[in-house]
Amino acid sequence: MAQDNPTRFDIALRAARVAFNGVDIFHDLDLTLQAGSFTCLLGPSGVGKSTLLRYFAGLVEGDVSGTITCSDKIALTGRVAYMAQQDLLLPWRSVLENVALGAVLRHEKPDYEKASHLLTEVGLRDAANLRPAELSGGMKQRAALARTLMEDRPVVLMDEPFSALDPLNRLRLQELAARVLRGKTVLLVTHDPLEALRLGDHVHVLTGSPAQLQDAITPKGQSPRNIADPEILAQQAELLGQLGAERSEGGA
Q1: Read out DSSP for 173-204?
Q2: What three-state secondary structure class fits 2?
Q3: Which residues have C-beta within 8 Å of that of residue 168, sequence separation ≥ 6?
Q4: E-assigned strands of the chain?
Q5: Which end of the chain has fewer CB atoms within 10 angstroms, the N or the C?
């Protein structure tokens, strides 16, 4: 069972509330990330998806309340790898140095061999010695993904990690993420229902103001799934229906 593995544990968010300038983004929000599962979060722009992701990362400031508890009774702090929407690459360091940056910041010896392997995995082997300014937007996102995978944490939080990629690279890196992150507890924010269904064990839609989570959709089989599967396409229609209902009610 997952609880027998010390690197795998359920994460329970309870009664979460975040407000900015007196306006609730969400309140009384509950979400459990099951140990070793891949959870995807959909929703319209501005509804609070990134805010919820940052809540799990401990990065939300302002009027915040609620609790996060882990089933192994150990604090989540220090056990999370977080990939923001922005690549956050240091412009004065090479791509290789950026991928290995976490170890440097922790005053540890960087494993450049592992970093080089991950750059090969994301298709950036020949860009290892370049500076971020020499990269395209999609290449920067791939470098940021490699840096996130480099951290090898039991919990991974990702904010639209494939949004800047062309369709072929998006599919290839979805497959890489599904393989490398298998067994980790993942929360991924995306605007793409098919991406969520291809990768996620549990897919939630966040809607409303204040935002609420809809009941999860749970695709069958192991990721990455075949997006042409009729059942996946039917679930895509269900998700689009939830998102469309939000728009028709005036959601942002």
Answers
A1: HHHHHHHHTTTSEEEEE-S-HHHHHHH-SEEE
A2: helix
A3: none
A4: 11-20, 23-33, 38-42, 63-70, 80-83, 155-159, 185-189, 202-207, 212-213
A5: N
Distances (CA, A) of 192 to 160, 228, 239: 9, 15, 10
Number of H helices and E strands in the chain, helices first, is 8, 9
Task: Fold for 1-79+155-161+184-252, please state it.
Answer: Rossmann fold (3.40.50)
| pLDDT per residue as tens digits for the range 137-184 | 999 999 999 999 999 999 999 999 999 899 999 999 999 999 999 999
Residue whose pair of structure tokens reads 């791509």 in the numeric block: 95
**Secondary structure of residue 73 in the 3-state scheme:** coil
Query: What is the DSSP pairing of strand 11-20 with strand 23-33?
Result: antiparallel
Distance of alpha carbon 47 from alpha carbon 84, whole angstroms? 17
Which residues make beta-bridge pairs with 42? Answer: 205
Element (H, E) at 223: none
Domain ranges (residues) in the chain: 1-79+155-161+184-252
CA distance 60 to 236: 31
Q: What is the pLDDT of residues 84-100, one digit of tens each?
A: 999 999 999 999 999 99
Residue spans of beta strands (DSSP E) within 43-197: 63-70, 80-83, 155-159, 185-189
Structure tokens at 202: 């549990």
Judge whether 83 and 145 are in contact, CB under 8 Å.
yes
